[in-house]
């Protein structure tokens, strides 16, 4: 009984932390879109997109959701490569 309760508390705690990751990712993605639409906010908009994709990737890995893992890993790679190319 105690083991079942401990697992339930652990799972609830992980779900709460995953929710924070998802909301942070959403916030940074919206911020990146806002900065892009306002124009001339490089590199802050790209940094916000990178952070959004990274938080969503972290949450997707914790949720074991393959489609979200793939899309956010690809987005993070595209944003990171774009950032590196802009710096050089």
Provide an overview of this structure.
It contains 3 helices and no strands. By secondary structure, the protein is mostly helical. The chain has one domain. Helix 2 (44-63) runs antiparallel to helix 3 (66-87).
Task: Please sum up the structure shown.
By secondary structure, this protein is mostly helical. The chain has helices at 2-38, 44-63, 66-87.
Question: What would the keywords be for this entry?
Answer:
88 residues; 3 helices; mainly alpha
Oligomeric nature of the chains: single chain
Strands, total number: 0
Structural class: mainly alpha
Query: What is the mean pLDDT?
Result: 88
Number of domains: 1
* H/E topology pattern: HHH
Task: Give a topology summary.
Blueprint: H1 2-38, H2 44-63, H3 66-87
Helix pairs in contact: 1-2, 2-3
């Amino acid at each position: 009984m105690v083991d079942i309760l401990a697992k339930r508390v652990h799972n609830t705690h992980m779900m709460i932390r995953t929710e924070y990751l998802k909301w942070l990712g959403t916030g940074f993605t919206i911020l990146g879109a806002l900065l892009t639409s306002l124009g001339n906010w490089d590199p802050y908009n790209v940094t916000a997109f990178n952070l959004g994709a990274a938080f969503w990737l972290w949450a997707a890995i914790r949720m074991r959701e393959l489609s979200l893992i793939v899309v956010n890993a690809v987005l993070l790679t595209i944003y990171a490569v774009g950032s590196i190319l802009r710096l050089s």
